[in-house]
């Protein structure tokens, strides 16, 4: 069966999710916060398994305009819910509303729930309450400018929960945002990669998974796998196909450091959980002590933001140190995520490009400093002599 589907994502990375999906062979429509596509049950599993930067894969059950609760009720009741929900289905209804006449989210949720119960009770000839003891089918009614979208979540826990983070630090970066930071760079797996603020190791681990072409969802389950119409043999086949595409022969040069030794230990445990601890060189190191004689590499960092006034001075001093250490590496491309929009002033260089991203609810900029690659041995020797 073909479904209307969408991959939801954080604001600012929709184009990245769209590119990931095109690379997987899908035709897509990119919109704010989501990417639409069509697919079968197999595509639902495949996209949940492979998308690195998305949050969830949802089935779009129906869309319509409604400005009254009567319209919402009637149009929801008109949907053949029994074609998707078994008689014992548990179907919690979440809701949100923006710029709409139906602005009460609890009332909208209650109306949708009641309409679905009515349709299912009629279809299954139930005169008592529906049991809701079976598999869970999470539903959402989202209303924007009086346009209603009813969706069913196939993912469960958000896709950023890869299953490898045994421990995390104080301000962890979500795994799908870390993957986005890597995918927005010029890095290829044959190039050196450095994260000088690795924290719990999320960025280098995501880089290693990209470098080895490991499906980000290989280590977890999805809520739709419990649904009766999702075939277990098909799921296993799609997972086996994904496993067969992983490249364990490519040699990776990925380094991760942090000034905090405890974070290095946490990073190692997380990398061990995903089976990549031997692919990443972890080291306790202050930025001021960073040195390399390698060329044509990529640095990706999520330095402390210094959002509290007491921390701002410390952050600014760190940004100055970063400039002193990293600016001379002219063949390297450097990418830093921070909410401090004056970052360039302290770093001492104008970014080649800035990209607005949201780290959770925090507005940040991704400052990009593109390097000039060293291409031949003569210029490489000149570079090393400097």
Distance between the termini: 63 Å
Strand sequence of the main sheet, in spatial order?
Answer: 2-3-1-4-7-6-5
Number of alpha- plus pi-helical segments: 11
Rounded average pLDDT: 95
CATH superfamily of the largest domain: Vaccinia Virus protein VP39
Helix content: 25-40%
Derived structural class: alpha/beta
Give the ordered list of helices and strands. EHEEHEHEHEEHEHHEHEEHEHEEH
Number of domains: 2
- Tell me the CATH topology of the largest domain: Rossmann fold
Give the oligomer, counting copies of the same chain as homo and different chains as hetero: single chain
CATH level 1 class label of the largest domain:
Alpha Beta
Strand segment count: 14
The coarse overall form would be elongated
Largest sheet: 7 strands, mixed
Proportion of strand residues = 15-25%
Evaluate the radius of gyration. 24 Å
Q: At CATH's second level, what is the architecture of the largest domain?
A: 3-Layer(aba) Sandwich
Low-confidence spans: none
């Amino acid at each position: 069966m073909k479904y209307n589907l969408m991959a939801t994502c954080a604001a600012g990375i929709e184009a990245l999710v769209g590119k990931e999906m095109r690379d997987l062979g899908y035709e897509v429509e990119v919109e704010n916060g989501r990417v639409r596509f069509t697919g079968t049950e197999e595509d639902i599993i495949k996209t949940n398994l492979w998308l690195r930067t998305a949050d969830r894969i949802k089935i779009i059950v129906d869309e319509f305009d409604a400005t009254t609760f009567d319209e919402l009720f009637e149009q929801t009741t008109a949907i053949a819910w029994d074609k998707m929900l078994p008689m014992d289905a548990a179907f919690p209804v979440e809701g949100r509303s923006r710029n709409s006449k139906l602005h009460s989210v609890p009332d909208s949720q209650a109306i949708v729930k009641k309409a679905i119960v009515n349709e299912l009770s009629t279809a299954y000839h139930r005169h008592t309450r529906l049991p809701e003891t079976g598999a869970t089918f999470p539903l959402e009614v989202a209303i924007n400018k009086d346009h209603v979208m009813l969706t069913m979540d196939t993912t469960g826990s958000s896709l950023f929960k890869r299953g490898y983070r045994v421990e995390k630090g104080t301000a962890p970066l979500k795994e799908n945002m870390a993957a986005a930071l890597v995918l927005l760079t010029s890095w290829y797996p044959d190039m050196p990669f450095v994260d000088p603020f690795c924290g719990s190791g999320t960025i280098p681990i995501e880089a290693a998974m990209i470098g080895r072409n490991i499906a980000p969802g290989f280590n977890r389950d999805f809520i739709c796998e419990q649904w009766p119409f999702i075939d277990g043999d098909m799921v296993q086949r799609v997972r086996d196909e994904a496993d067969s595409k992983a490249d364990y022969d490519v040699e990776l040069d990925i380094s991760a450091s942090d000034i905090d030794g405890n974070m290095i230990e946490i990073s190692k445990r997380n990398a061990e959980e995903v089976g990549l601890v031997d692919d990443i060189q972890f080291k306790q190191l202050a930025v001021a002590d960073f040195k390399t004689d390698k060329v044509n590499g990529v640095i990706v960092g999520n330095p402390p933001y210094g959002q509290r006034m007491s921390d701002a001075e410390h952050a600014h001093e760190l940004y100055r140190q970063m400039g002193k250490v990293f600016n001379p590496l002219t063949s390297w491309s450097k990418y830093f995520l921070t909410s401090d929009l004056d970052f360039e002033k302290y770093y001492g260089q104008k970014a080649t490009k800035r990209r607005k991203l949201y780290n959770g609810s925090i507005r940040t900029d991704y400052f990009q400093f593109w390097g000039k690659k060293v291409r031949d041995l003569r210029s490489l020797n000149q570079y090393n002599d400097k």
